[in-house]
Write a structure and sequence with these properties.
single chain; about 100 residues; mainly alpha; 5 helices; about 0% strand; globular
């Protein structure tokens, strides 16, 4: 199913999930409704993977600080940029030395 998810839909999913990491009361029902509406091609397993492997590693530390900097909502452009950069770095780390030599 992940193959049918467009980049636009995936970014929308990151933005919706970012609301789970603000230092404020979270409206879980609204988040769930937005995920159903904005991420229709992502099944439960893909949503879970996206939350734990893509969004949480980037935004999860917000709630771990004594005075979190984000309590109303994350900047959407920053969420997209930061998650995409982390995924790019993660992908580059997975490239073997042999693959690096072939790319040179």
């Amino acid at each position: 199913m992940a193959d049918t998810v467009s980049a636009h839909e995936r970014r929308n999913c990151w933005l919706v999930m970012s609301d789970l990491f603000v230092d404020n009361e979270v409206d879980y029902k609204a988040v769930a409704e937005a995920l159903v509406r904005d991420c229709p091609n992502m099944n439960r397993a893909e949503l879970k993977r996206t939350l734990f492997e893509e969004v949480a590693p980037v935004l999860g530390t917000n709630g771990l600080t004594p005075a979190p900097s984000v309590w109303m909502g994350f900047d959407g452009d920053a969420v997209i940029r930061d998650v995409a950069e982390r995924l790019t770095r993660q992908h580059l780390v997975r490239i073997s030395p042999r693959q690096w030599r072939r790319m040179e």
